């Protein structure tokens, strides 16, 4: 029974992952469409649907540039947060204006409020000039990474499956 459900649900997550990846790619080119939420959805869908697609996506430059730091630290620079909130705060009311169904407008308003709440209270804001903290190996992890590299040079740390001192699970 579980195997049958996986055969049904996994392709759904894979298709949804590619759709959100396409929307994220459009968001890279068009500043009106937010990139980060779509790429986060892509990572989630691929993680649920296929280990192979998830590994592929997390190894791409798109993932590393736009969301890897957020996924690792749950933080983003104030400028990025403001940009995302501004985009959503402009696009969502426009969409609400053109949707004639009151229930859809209410749902969109709830989503807008939830979006603001999440970004204000759940996503940490990095101090000004700490954008490097989002880079893997930068910011707060720099000392730990240099200690691991030093130990690796001495031969006291196994390189692990990823070759970065961490063990893949």
Plain-language structure description:
It contains eight helices and two strands; from the N terminus they run H-H-H-H-H-E-H-H-E-H. The chain has 169 residues and is mainly alpha-helical. It has a domain at 1-66. The protein has a two-stranded parallel sheet with strand order 1-2. Helix 1 runs antiparallel to helix 2 (36-49), helix 2 runs antiparallel to helix 3 (51-58) and helix 6 runs antiparallel to helix 7. The longest helix is centred in the N-terminal third of the chain and has 28 residues, at 2-29. The protein starts with a helix and ends in a 15-residue tail after the last helix. Mean pLDDT is 77; it is low at 132-152 and 156-169.
Report the end-to-end length measured between terminal Cα atoms: 26 Å
Low-confidence stretches are 132-152, 156-169
Mean pLDDT: 77
- Output the strand order for the largest sheet: 1-2
Range of strand content? under 5%
Query: Largest sheet, described in full?
Result: 2 strands, parallel
Number of helices: 8
Q: Which radius of gyration do the C-alpha atoms yield? A: 19 Å
Q: List the helices and strands in order.
A: HHHHHEHHEH
Strand count: 2
Structural class: mainly alpha
What overall form do the CA principal axes indicate? globular
Report the helical percentage. 55-70%
Attribute tags:
69% helix; 8 helices; two-stranded parallel ribbon; mainly alpha; 169 residues; disordered C terminus
Write the topology of this structure.
Blueprint: H1 2-29, H2 36-49, H3 51-58, H4 61-66, H5 68-73, E1 75-77, H6 78-98, H7 102-121, E2 124-126, H8 142-154
Parallel strand pairs: 1-2
Helix pairs in contact: 1-2, 2-3, 6-7
């Amino acid at each position: 029974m579980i195997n049958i459900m996986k055969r049904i649900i996994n392709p759904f997550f894979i298709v949804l992952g590619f759709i959100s990846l396409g929307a994220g790619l459009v968001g890279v080119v068009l500043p009106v469409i937010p990139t980060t939420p779509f790429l986060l959805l892509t990572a989630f869908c691929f993680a649920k649907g296929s280990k192979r697609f998830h590994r592929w996506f997390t190894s791409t430059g798109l993932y590393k540039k736009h969301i890897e730091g957020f996924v690792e630290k749950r933080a983003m620079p104030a400028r990025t947060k403001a940009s995302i909130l501004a985009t959503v705060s402009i696009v969502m009311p426009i969409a609400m204006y053109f949707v004639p169904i009151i229930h859809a407008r209410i749902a969109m308003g709830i989503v807008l409020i939830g979006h603001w709440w999440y970004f204000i209270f759940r996503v940490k804001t990095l101090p000004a000039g700490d954008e490097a903290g989002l880079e893997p190996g930068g910011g707060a992890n720099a000392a730990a990474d240099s200690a691991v590299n030093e130990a690796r040079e001495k031969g006291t740390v196994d390189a692990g499956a990823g070759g970065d001192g961490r063990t893949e699970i």
